[in-house]
Amino acid sequence: MQLSSDELRRLSVDERLELIGQLWDSLEHEPLPLSDAQQHELDRRLESLESDPAEGVSWEQLRAELERRCP
Question: In 3D, which of 22, 53, 59 has the Cα closest to residue 45?
Answer without folding.
Answer: 53
